[in-house]
Write a structure and sequence with these properties.
Layout: H1 2-8, H2 10-56, H3 61-67, E1 72-73, H4 80-89, E2 105-116, H5 120-134, H6 139-172, H7 174-185, H8 203-207, H9 220-265, H10 268-289, H11 291-316, H12 322-328, H13 357-377, H14 385-388, H15 392-395, H16 416-421, H17 431-436, H18 438-451, H19 467-473, H20 478-503, H21 505-522, H22 528-552, E3 557-558, E4 593-594, H23 596-605, H24 609-628, E5 637-648, H25 654-657, E6 665-673
Antiparallel strand pairs: 1-5, 2-5, 3-4, 5-6
């Protein structure tokens, strides 16, 4: 009965089955759509990646051929958006004769360009990508060696400058020592007008001194004693003042000596070179301190003041004259027979021939003016001001030279203060930057050496002949760049030549003997160290002039010289800057045989990487502007292409879900970079 009734209700079965089938269909469609969406992601990314690669193939060919740099140029003949649209649609895999589960439609596609080559970090990545395959395997070890030499030279330069300041301060005390010696010991033996002269004081004679004008003044002699003691107290006060001045010098010298010792402790090579000099300066400092004299005259001042006060009290209170004798018993406690110690040295006239400062001064001035005339005669390439102010380094604020033209003015070689002037600049400014990532520094420098020109092989077809010099110096014309680079090489050679002299026992001993001889004859024997440093500086300056001339003639100069490599004989220094006849340049190890380009590499290593990259960008823009015939800007050359596609996924289940079709649009982004 039940079955018959149920079978009679056919519509209910149909509806139920249809609902079940519909649910199954929707579920299947959702599962199919889900599977399709998973496939879409991979397919879209593959199509976009191919599209990005196709767009990137339109790189700036001229830039790539000249400088091995790659980037998409926005001023070219092709629009990145149009290219992206063409290549994306060209990758359509629809097959009209079969069911295509990937039948999605492109709604919108766009291409964005990012990371211009004027950004130093982007340029650095490309340079490293280029040079890591081109640079030789031993470049890093080569530059590491240079870094060690430069690091040692930097510390040696600082220690040398500190030693010079110490020696100069010791020399500055010579006048104070003369005044102190005169105040304590007098101008001659038996001089009564000095600290030691009080031992000749006869108070009983003064006590009995009576003249016709003061027969009734019983305290006249007592007043004479008081005034005489006051005069001797003044001698002691003056001596104490000079001692205090020396003490102030000694304290400052102590601080400088400690600073020099700390720097020595950081560099075994510098310690080996300068420790003997620092030890000698410590001994000289101990000699100028005269602590014994200071304590003695200080005691004298206190004792004489007490005696003067007591005698004045006798006069004021009309005390007994016999009390004066009691007070004067203390005169025996006054310190006398004091001797002021100075740094003495014997003077030998035959050493005076080696004081070559005047000759070097004349030769330096002549060489400076000759060089300036030669440079004025050359074609002076320059960057026009309206172009210069738009260059990447100028806009980034990186084109302020870190070291001035130190030898632009005449150097006075008469004292270490003026010699030390050429050491004030931080020639090793980028050393710490180089040390933080030595491989990056090595690769960037190698790129510059391989792609840029220097003054010895410059091209008239380029904006500047001295391109590497510009990267180091940053001036807008060749003349100033060449001058600053020449001066930097001069400073480097000067420092290394000074180190050579200090490490050559014969040269150092001779310089010390000459310095002591000069000091004995003109500064009371105190300034031997400073005069020795001046002599060493003079020798090193003369040798450095020869080095610069040799390098600019296309020849080599060893970075670290030995005795055979030194061109000027010490004996012949005052006669001229040419080597003695018959002398030959010593055999030099190839690794140490540096030509002008190698010295430029050393200076590049000492220039901050960021500064080098910005100035490299300047040179590229200038030269590419000549090649293309328009103002070429690396800011318009992009390293990264980003393509974004928005597609309609055409999901089958959308109509059943009752949702807006746009809700299921798919957006995928893929980027590609040349580095």
């Amino acid at each position: 009965m039940f079955c018959r009734n149920y079978l009679n209700r056919k519509g209910s079965v149909t509806i139920s089955v249809m609902l079940i089938l519909l649910a199954i269909c929707i579920l299947n469609l959702v599962l199919v759509d889900y599977s399709r969406s998973l496939i879409y992601k991979k397919d879209l990314r593959q199509r976009l990646a191919l599209c990005v690669s196709s767009v990137m193939s339109y790189y700036d060919y001229a830039l790539a051929s000249e400088y091995d740099l790659y980037g998409y140029c926005i001023t070219g003949n092709y629009d990145a958006n149009n290219l992206a649209d063409r290549y994306f649609k060209g990758c359509d895999f629809k097959d009209k004769d079969s069911i295509n589960l990937l039948a999605y439609d492109c709604i919108e596609i766009s291409a964005e360009l990012e990371s211009g080559l004027d950004e130093h970090d982007i340029l650095q990545k490309q340079v490293i990508d280029v040079m890591k395959y081109k640079s030789s395997a031993n470049l890093l070890s080569y530059v590491s060696e240079l870094f060690g030499i430069a690091d040692s030279a930097d510390k040696s330069k600082d220690i040398y400058a500190l030693s010079g300041k110490i020696a100069q301060m010791i020399d500055d005390t010579s006048e104070i020592l003369v005044m102190l010696k005169s105040e304590v010991e007098g101008a001659f033996d038996g001089d009564r007008l000095c600290v030691n002269g009080i031992k000749y004081f006869k108070y009983d004679t003064l006590l009995d001194s009576v003249t016709g004008n003061n027969l009734n003044d019983v305290y006249f002699g007592t007043a004479l004693i008081r005034d005489t003691l006051t005069e001797y107290r003044e001698h002691n006060n003056k001596a104490l003042y000079y001692c205090n001045c020396l003490s102030d010098y000694a304290e400052e010298i102590d601080m400088l000596i400690k600073e020099a010792q700390d720097k020595c402790s950081d560099s075994p090579e510098a310690d080996q070179t300068f420790s003997p000099l620092i030890e000698k300066l410590k001994n000289n400092k101990a000699s100028i301190s005269n602590l014994g004299i200071r304590n003695a005259v200080s005691e004298n001042v206190l004792l004489l003041s007490d005696m003067i006060t007591e005698i004045q009290s006798i006069i004021d209170n009309e005390g007994a004259i016999s009390k004066v004798a009691k007070v004067m018993e203390n005169i025996a406690e006054v310190n006398t027979d004091l001797t002021v110690s100075v740094v003495r040295a014997g003077s030998e006239e035959n050493y005076q021939q080696f004081d070559n400062r005047e000759e070097i001064q004349i030769q330096y001035n002549e060489r400076k003016y000759e060089t300036e005339e030669e440079e004025n005669e050359e074609d002076n390439c320059f960057i026009e001001e309206n172009i210069y102010i738009t260059l990447p380094s100028v806009l980034a604020g990186e084109n302020n030279p870190s070291i001035g033209d130190y030898l632009n003015n005449t150097i006075d070689l008469s004292g270490f203060d003026s010699i030390g002037m050429i050491l004030d600049g931080d020639i090793f400014g980028g050393l710490k930057d180089a040390g933080s990532d030595l491989l990056t520094t090595a690769l960037v420098d190698d790129y510059i050496i391989n792609h840029m020109r220097d003054r010895l092989n410059g091209s008239k077809t380029r904006t500047l002949k001295s391109e590497i010099e510009y990267i180091i110096a940053g001036h807008k014309n060749d003349k100033d760049n060449n001058k600053e680079v020449r001066n930097k090489i001069f400073l480097l050679r000067f420092i290394l030549n000074v180190i050579h002299v200090f490490r050559d026992n014969n040269k150092r001993a001779l310089a010390e003997a000459i310095g002591n001889s000069i000091a004995a004859s003109c500064s009371y024997g105190v300034g031997g160290a400073v005069y020795a440093l001046i002599i060493i500086a003079g020798w090193s300056l003369a040798e450095s002039f020869c080095d610069i001339s040799t390098l600019l003639d296309g020849q080599s100069v060893p970075l670290i010289k030995d005795e055979d490599d030194w061109k000027l004989s010490i004996k012949g220094l005052a006669g001229g800057l040419a080597p003695e006849d018959g002398e030959e340049e010593g055999a030099v190890d190839k690794l140490n045989d540096f030509e002008y380009e190698e010295y430029l590499r050393v200076l590049l290593m000492m220039t901050p990487v960021k500064t080098k990259l910005f100035r490299t960008a300047d040179i590229i823009e200038l030269n590419m502007s000549k090649i293309t015939g328009r103002r070429y800007r690396l800011a318009g050359i992009y390293n990264t292409v980003v393509v974004t596609a928005c597609v309609d996924t055409n999901l089958y289940a959308i109509s059943f879900l009752g949702r807006d079709k746009k809700t299921f649009y798919k957006e995928v982004t893929v980027s590609g970079s040349y580095s």
